[in-house]
C-alpha cells in the first residue's frame, strides 16, 4: 500500500534571472504542514522573487515547484488553477480594496471563486473575522482601521477559502513591535490549528526567533543555511551571522549563550 503524501511544498533547483542578472541560483527546500516556514535574508537576496516563483506570479527559468507531489508548472491551466484555489496570500501592504468594507474585502475571494450562497458566504466571513478578532469591525472601511487591523483583515481574507497553503510576504512591515508580535502569534496559531503549510518572507528578527520552526537563509540568490529558531544563533555561516547579529539583542543573546 502506498503511503499518503504529507501536505507540503517542495522546491527543487529553482533558478531565475532578469536581463542576464542571476537572482536565484538553484534553490531547494521542503516546507511542511503545521509549521511556520520562514525565508529570510537581506534586501535583494531573492526571497520575494522566490515566493513569486512558488505561487506562480513569476515562472522560474528552471526547477520544479511541487504541491503535495503535484508539479505546479508541468500541468495544464486547469491543474494550475486547482492548486491556486488551495492558496491563501497575505500581501506586504495588505492589498485591501479601499472602496469596500472589511467584510466585503474578506468576502471577495468567495465571490470570485465559489458558488456558495449569500448566507454561506456571510457565515464564512463572520467566522474568519472572529478568528482574527475583528468581528466588531466588519462594516468599517480600511481607512478607519489601524495598520495592524489591516494586516488581520488580510489574514482573514487569506484563510477565507480554507487554504492548504498560506503565504505571507513581510507580514510585519510597517508595524510597531507589539503589533508585529501579535501578527506573528496569529499566523503561528492559524498554521498549527488548521495544519496549513505556511511560508513567511521576512527580515524581522523577532519573527525569526519567535516563530521560525523551519528557516531558510538566502544570500545573493543562494541558500546558505537551513535550520530553526533553536539553532540559528549557533550558525557558523559568516553571512548569516552578519545578518543576524547586526541586531544588538541577538548579539547579546549569543554572548549570554
From TrEMBL:
One of its GO terms (molecular function) is ATP binding. The keyword Iron-sulfur does not apply. It holds the Pfam family ABC_tran. Residues 9-245 form the ABC transporter domain. Keywords: ATP-binding, Nucleotide-binding, Transport. This is ABC transporter ATP-binding protein. It comes from Ravibacter arvi.
Amino acid at each position: 500500500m502506498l503511503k499518503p503524501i504529507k501536505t507540503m511544498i517542495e522546491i527543487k533547483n529553482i533558478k531565475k534571472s532578469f536581463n542576464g542578472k542571476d537572482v536565484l541560483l538553484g534553490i531547494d527546500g521542503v516546507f511542511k504542514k503545521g509549521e511556520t516556514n520562514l525565508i529570510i535574508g537581506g534586501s535583494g537576496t531573492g526571497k520575494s522573487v522566490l515566493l513569486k516563483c512558488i505561487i506562480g506570479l513569476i515562472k522560474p527559468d528552471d526547477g520544479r515547484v511541487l504541491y503535495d507531489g503535484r508539479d505546479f508548472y508541468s500541468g495544464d491551466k486547469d491543474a494550475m488553477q486547482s492548486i491556486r484555489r488551495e492558496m491563501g496570500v497575505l500581501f506586504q501592504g495588505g492589498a485591501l480594496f479601499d472602496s469596500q468594507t472589511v467584510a466585503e474585502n474578506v468576502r471577495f475571494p468567495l465571490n470570485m471563486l465559489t458558488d456558495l450562497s449569500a448566507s454561506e458566504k456571510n457565515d464564512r466571513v463572520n467566522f474568519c473575522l472572529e478568528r482574527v478578532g475583528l468581528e466588531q469591525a466588519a462594516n468599517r472601511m480600511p481607512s478607519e482601521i489601524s495598520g495592524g487591523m489591516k494586516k488581520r483583515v488580510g489574514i482573514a481574507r487569506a484563510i477565507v477559502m480554507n487554504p492548504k497553503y498560506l503565504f505571507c510576504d513581510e507580514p510585519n512591515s510597517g508595524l510597531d513591535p507589539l503589533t508585529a508580535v501579535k501578527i506573528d502569534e496569529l499566523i503561528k496559531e492559524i498554521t498549527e490549528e488548521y495544519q496549513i503549510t505556511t511560508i513567511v518572507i521576512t527580515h524581522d528578527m523577532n519573527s525569526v526567533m519567535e516563530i521560525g520552526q523551519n528557516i531558510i537563509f538566502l544570500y545573493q540568490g543562494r541558500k546558505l543555511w537551513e535550520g530553526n529558531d533553536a539553532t540559528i544563533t549557533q550558525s557558523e555561516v559568516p553571512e548569516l551571522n552578519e545578518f543576524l547579529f547586526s541586531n544588538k539583542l541577538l548579539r547579546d543573546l549569543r554572548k549570554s549563550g
